[in-house]
UniProtKB/TrEMBL annotation:
It holds the Pfam family PTR2. Belongs to the major facilitator superfamily. Proton-dependent oligopeptide transporter (POT/PTR) (TC 2.A.17) family. This is Solute carrier family 15 member 5. It comes from Geospiza parvula. It is found in: Membrane. It comes from the Eukaryota. Signal peptide: none annotated. PANTHER family: OLIGOPEPTIDE TRANSPORTER-RELATED. Keywords: Membrane, Peptide transport, Protein transport, Symport, Transmembrane, Transmembrane helix, Transport. GO terms for biological process: peptide transport; protein transport. The keyword 4Fe-4S does not apply. Proton oligopeptide cotransporter. InterPro entries: MFS_trans_sf, POT_fam. GO terms for molecular function: symporter activity.
Amino acid sequence: MPDADTQEKGFVNYMADKEQRAGRSSPAGMVPEGEKKLHEAVCVLLVELCERFTFFGIVCNMILFCTARLGYPSHQAAMVNMCFVGTSTLTPVLVGWLAEYLVGRTKLVCICMFLHFLGTALLPVVSFPFEDVHIDRRHILLTLPKREQKIVFYFALLTASLGIGGIRAIVCPLSAYSLEDCGPKELLSFFNWFHWLVNLNSAVVFVSISYIQQSVARNLGFLIPFVSGLMAMITIHMVRGEMIYKPKTGKRHSLLTTFGVIFSALKTCCVRHRYLSTAVPSWLDHAKENHGGHYSETQVEGTKSLARLFPLFTFQILYRTCIMQIPSGYYLQTMNSNLHFGGFVLPVAAMNVISIVPLLILVPILECINSWLFSSKDTGHSPTIYIGHLSAALSVMAAGFSEIHRKRFPQVEQTLSEELLLVSSMPCFHLAPQYILLGVAEALVTPSCSLLSFWLVPERMRGISMHFLALFNGAGCFMGALIVQTLILLQMSPSPGSWFPHLLHEGKLERFFFFLASLMMVNTLGFWAIAHRYHNILMKKSFDLKCLTFQ
């Protein structure tokens, strides 16, 4: 402990001296380097929070809007929500590639700002009650047929997700936070508090916007995400010269290079296996120039370090599918439960706050635990990941038992967004355990997984590694939609007795949750079997870092 404190104090003193020297060397009238970096970090964080505010504002009541306004069945509304989240997760990878190779960062950020503005502006158009605005007693202002309304809705979601991807990839990438010189302790602390801020922001959205959309101005609720997106774009415009992140040249390893190494190795490996056998330490070594490939030693070794993380990414797919039950399956359960509390009708999305509270509480506790862990010899964080996976599996299992419990209560009438629904009289707070368990899972898994993805690869590969993590997280969102669609196709329709019914009291939604929980338990056992690899790699790299520090 004293050695760790001495190193930390020495690092703080070194950084303070460095900033003072930078300030003294700055010409008159120039902003010191340290103050400039702090200003940039605050601006990036502000834009990030505004973008997340917009994103969660769109997601929080999309199912209620699709079922009440557009007339979608429950399973289709859940799939739309999951696909939008998945698209918003994948678009940063696509936009980052476009900015690097085809368009250019400054031009592309302007295009993405326009798309973000267009998408968030069209959503209020879709939700606006034109049929309630009359020119006179016989004529209404405008009639927007359902088909055109759905087309505009999908176009708005697509353009908004592309705009979200541009802001995340160009303005707010992790590289903009200058994490290159951070050790594992500082990185984990950053990821913990970053996700803490994002979830605090989402808690505000779920309480405020969901109430306005559901109870106060149901047709104009999408205006709030529009205003938030407008705030983000104004912030970008004010400081665009500082906030458009420009990566360092000469040290990057592109996404295309990574895929090229993999395909070249597979092609060469197949040819060599068919005609002549050449022993190499790894199948990726077939892509090296000295083994008949087309890529340098540095490029192949970087891809090999990334390939070690593919099992970790793969096990994240089903975990992300479980997390996506909050805005889909869990939302439908809450919507079909009794939301009355002391004469007040709770917003459906407000139940999401119950899953956020454990994360807000656990992050400070985990910070204290991590300080002790990094001061000792144990620096592995794979245990927290499979504990989080187990918590996610238990959450989905609890959702299945809650669904059985919910259907035992008599039905009552409840008005949501001016629509009269028959729901269970069970208080919605009976669903709290499944939300809490999923919140615990997020607190344990997401920061630790981000740390492993960022720290266990060379510096030039870190951006690519985070892109692959985003790809697999997006795949988990689409996997949830695919599972629901497959179940509907196997049962021919969302008829009574189906695993994802339109009317929950007539179906067997609990079987869907039990099926997903069984898959997640297998997923947890599979990750537990390989978790020691990342534990050992992280310990070795931390030990090497300490040796370099003492030298």
